[in-house]
Write a structure and sequence with these properties.
Elements lengths: L13 H7 L4 E3 L1 H6 L3 H6 L3 H5 L5 E3 L3 H6 L4 E3 L4 E4 L6 E4 L1 H11 L3 E3 L11 H24 L8 E6 L5 H12 L5 E4 L8 H11 L9 E3 L5 H10 L3 E2 L3 H7 L2 E4 L2 E4 L19 H5 L2 H9 L3 H28 L2 H12 L9
Helix pairs in contact: 1-14, 6-7, 7-8, 9-10, 11-14, 13-14, 14-15
């Protein structure tokens, strides 16, 4: 799921999102609450109308902001108090309030409010955050049911916490899945752990989740992450990696990663990726793209973001094709090698 934090995937038109292969996108509950506010979003027809997007939209809970803005928030058993990053005003999130906000935003999938522990390796703080997440989910589910539940067309997902601790992850799965919800997510990963610890956590947790419900790995999204997580049973991902890298002029290609600002590409008439069917690769040369990057043209970030999204979605398409053919492992080896490889101009 491409990330559209403030009701837009940066530098990418909805039409282009669709053409890259995007099926579902994500928006941020905390940021939309701050500006323009869920009441305004509702008046404007909801997120779908605001984003010009007819497909599914998932909204996160604000739990990640509890982690990322720990220096300006206060957590208690009832909820979290923030300071607005827009104007410094007081903001209060509770499990019930987060359900209400997301209902007004009109997303298709709403995430239950959770506490993402600041240090996933500190057992005491992880235990506290995980237990609180379970209590908050009970309150969120109650509010969700009171408002009509799945009959409204909005699905509520619960979030598993537990840091790097296997026993806490298992008990969290039991607690979260004790509620019969449309889907479940793994949270609290990729927040400071090593790649090996992330992989171990996902390998342990994902198979414990119901196999007949969507399984969502939050905030993770590199090609290597995809393969490791899919092998464990994960279905959904979100990450800013493709668009953020695109805006910073780094692209993923079938030959490896390229820094488009490289001097060696100045006069290149080659395609950025001859195996890609996106606009950047079929209509522009590497030299032209480098010029756009070096002159600060907005089109550069647009084209490179479109390309990276297409590469990520095409990777997913190839995975879906490879699994029934028994070629998943060989495809993983190929893509992971490319992801770690930087291409120099002399190789083109």
């Amino acid at each position: 799921m491409p990330v559209g934090t403030r009701a837009t995937v940066k530098a990418v038109l909805p039409r282009d999102l669709l053409e890259t292969g995007s099926q579902m996108i994500l928006a941020n509950t905390y940021h939309m609450h701050l500006r323009p506010g869920e009441a305004v979003v509702k008046e404007l027809g909801g997120l779908h109308a605001m984003m010009g997007w007819k497909g599914p939209i998932l909204t996160d809970s604000g739990g990640y902001q509890v982690f990322s803005m720990g220096d300006i928030c206060r957590i208690d058993d009832d909820g979290v108090s923030f300071r607005s990053i827009v104007d410094g005003s007081a903001v209060r999130f509770t499990p019930e309030r987060v359900v209400d906000i997301q209902r007004d935003l009109g997303s298709d999938v709403a995430m239950a409010f959770d506490q993402c522990p600041a240090v996933p390796t500190d057992r005491a703080s992880v235990t506290l955050a995980t237990d609180r997440t379970h209590r908050w989910l009970e309150r969120a589910v109650k509010r969700y049911r009171e408002m009509g539940g799945e009959e409204t067309g909005q699905a509520l997902f619960g979030i598993v916490q537990g840091g790097i601790f296997g026993d806490l992850r298992r008990s969290s799965v039991d607690a979260i899945c004790s509620h019969d919800l449309p889907g479940y997510a793994i949270g609290g990963v990729s927040v400071g752990e090593t790649p090996d610890l992330i992989r171990t956590t996902v390998e342990l947790t994902a198979p414990l989740l119901p196999k007949d419900k969507p399984r969502y790995l939050m905030g993770v999204g590199t090609p290597r992450d995809f393969f490791d997580a899919i092998a464990s049973g994960i279905d959904l991902f979100d990450c800013v990696t493709p668009t953020r890298n695109g805006r910073n002029h780094t692209v993923f290609t079938s030959r490896g990663r390229l820094n488009i600002r490289n001097q060696g590409f100045q006069s290149s008439t080659a395609s950025m990726d001859p195996n890609c069917d996106c606009q950047a690769c079929t209509q522009f040369s590497l030299g032209a793209l480098r010029h756009l990057c070096n002159t600060g043209e907005m089109l550069a970030g647009m084209l490179l973001s479109i390309h990276n999204l297409r590469f990520f979605h095409r990777t997913m398409e190839r995975i879906r094709e490879a699994i029934p053919l028994g070629q998943f492992s060989s495809l993983r080896d190929e893509v992971v090698e490319l992801y770690s490889r930087r291409v120099s101009p002399s190789e083109l």
